[in-house]
Amino acid sequence: MGSLFRSEEVCLAQLFLQSASAYSCVSELGERGLLEFRDLNPKVSAFQRRFVGEVRRCEEMEKTFSECWGDVGLPRGEEGCPPDPPIPHLTTAFSEQLAQELREVSHNRASLRGRLRELRQYLHVLREGQRFTSWPRDPLLDPSLGSSRAVPIPVPPLCPCSFVAGVIHPWRVSAFERLLWRACRGYLVASFVEMPEPMEDPATVRGVPGWGLHPPNMAMSVCPSFHCHVYPYPESEASRADTMSGLHSQIQDLSVLEETEQYLAQVLDKVTLALPTWRVQVQKMKAIYLVLNQCSFDVTEKCLIAEVWCPVRDLTQVQDALRQGSYKSGSSVECFVQRIPTSESPPTLIRTNKFTAGFQSIVDAYGVASYQEVNPAPYAIITFPFIFAIMFGDVGHGLLMFLFALWMVLRENSPSLRQSSNEIWLTFFEGRYLILLMGAFSIYTGFIYNECFSKATVIFPSAWSVAAMANHSSWRWDSQPHREPCLVPCPLGERMRWDPRWGIWSLATNHLNFLNSFKMKMSVVLGIVHMGFGVMLGVFNHMHFQQWHRLVLELLPEMVFLLALFGYLVFLIFYKWVKFSAANSLEAPSILIHFIDMFLFTSNAANLPLYQGQVPVQTVLVVLALASVPVLLLGTPLYLCCRRRAPRTGPPAVRLGSRRGGALSRGGGAQRSLTHVDFAEIFMHQAIHTIEYCLGCVSNTASYLRLWALSLAHAQLSEVLWTMVMRQGFVRLNYVGGVVLVPVFAAFAVLTVAILLVMEGLSAFLHALRLHWVEFQNKFYVGAGYKLCPFTFAPDTWE
């Protein structure tokens, strides 16, 4: 959490690795995940690097493991405990030996199964042919003796007849029969019989047909095109009996197939135990060799040199990892790390945990923080859920969201939730702590609004008093049954009666007008405070990068412009709330008219002033705001120009920081010496910043009115849903009404979840995201950096 407010200090370092221990050292660094390696061979092709042979061998092993994975049929899930990177030659030999054994056994099993299938098919062909040709009468002229699909054709008595038998897939029977009929010109009799037991080979047949035809050569030329398997058919009955007995003996001799399958099961058990570990080990080996390809050799080619980005606080751990790697490899010379100076901007490193990762991802979606600039994530932990809750304030809806997020938090270690393939669900699960806080803050603002599923509560009694209006007018309170509460004329002195079971504003006819005024002013106040806080966070950037001139020439004019105009507007809102009460509320002037007259340097006689001397005060504030604009526009460019022309006694100091385009750095220090900075470029960027800030103060203040709009929209939509759906279930207060209430409540629950929780929640989330990105972070945050991507075997190194 120490680096959450600002990115950690990162330095550029060199690693000197002995050739014998380089593999072990990189492996140890990958287990700890501390460094980001830089490619020192950017112009060298991937096929010309030093360890390209080892990388190809790893890819071949990955291909072999993928084939084994398909044979074993294991689910491709995450392994529980990742193994250590293995010794390359031992793992390669052992894995290739077991993979070769698995391939040989699988091939032998496939060959034996194919041979057994062919023998069984041949046996079925002989049996069906024996039945087809062993009748005393001529079966070719009697269709009842053959298959129901046989076609009776008259055959001349002196015509020689041949018999050919085989197997064909049932789907090809009809086309095959038509082609034979045409090829043989009708001189054939075909009979197709279904095989009594199906074959296991999906690529071959499941039916056993037999056919008699003349001439046979024509059929033999047609069979290959239909993938027919033709078997020799002996003409004599004795030869067929001898062939069938031989087939029976050969089938019995293939009992070795069972032993082969048993041995294959043993090999698959070995592969099942070792394959997940091997896959991870080979992936680690490949990653290590890819990193070694990014290193360069010294002139003696006995030492590898690597350049890395390393957090300064982890330099001791890096040295310890190198020491451990040298010890494991048996090298007598230890590898070491050396920090080197650089003028490049280092990557950004912000360590997070499971709670802060969701908020940091929101900030990183806008842009990764520049090196060591202020990180908005810790402040967004409070402001983001609060701004969301202002637009989503309802006790019931917030409670449902809170319970849903709490369920995800309590089951965050469940593999079924973490390893889901649904991308939308994973998005919700990664932001479970963010949703938890949004639900909790929505419950709080719901109590402030006194809304629970659009209905008012009486947990806190109303502090509204109508005594002033009653004592100074002829109105009294009348709340008779079956009538809306209203003020009616009554003699002075009669006490006001009010039912404490109802909230005052939920039944008032002007409650929408009151909430409009209240939430609009609340949105303006919160927006100006939020923007002012963002401007003040720029102080920490200026102080950290020692840009003291920007405190006076930029921060001070920005605060004067913001507070003189919009800070004064907040003062008018609170002053009007404090000064005027119900007794003199009709005399209260309009703040909007006063604010318009302030810019026009005029006064309106119809709109009374709020306090004495209001016009001169407003004139002075507008003059101060206008005077701060040229200071903000010309202050920094003139200061840098004068500093560039001033004589220097020493070399210019160059600090690391982030760039905001061009020479002027808003999030960090300058990237180059002032002697190389173009004054026109500085002035152009400062002019853009000045225009953006001045116009942004106006537009951003108006943008915060979305808090008011979405809050009212959510409340009105909740009320419409209750009135149009849920209230219909309370029409009949009897048993029939109880039965009707069940589907009505189901519809109300579904619409509440789908419209108010999902759609309205997503809308409020997007608007809160925009307010943080544009209105808040734009005041101090640059987001022009890039993340530190360490070389690691673990997926969540910094979390």
What does this protein structure show overall?
The protein is an alpha+beta fold and 799 residues long. The protein has helices at 22-32, 52-72, 88-133, 173-183, 216-222, 237-253, 256-293, 315-329, 357-366, 377-391, 395-410, 415-418, 423-430, 432-449, 467-471, 504-507, 511-544, 548-579, 591-600, 614-645, 679-703, 706-724, 735-776; strands at residues 10-18, 36-38, 162-167, 188-194, 207-213, 229-231, 296-297, 303-311, 336-340, 475-478, 486-489. The strands form 3 sheets. Strands 1, 2, 7, 8 and 9 form a 5-stranded antiparallel β-sheet that branches. The chain has a 4-stranded antiparallel β-sheet with strand order 4-5-3-6, sandwiched between helices. It has a two-stranded antiparallel ribbon with strand order 10-11. The longest helix is centred in the first third of the chain and has 46 residues, at 88-133. It is flat and about 130 Å long. It starts with 9 loop residues before the first strand and ends in a 23-residue tail after the last helix. 28% of the residues are buried. Residues 75-81, 139-160, 201-214, 477-502 and 650-675 have low confidence and may be disordered. It comes from Strix occidentalis caurina.
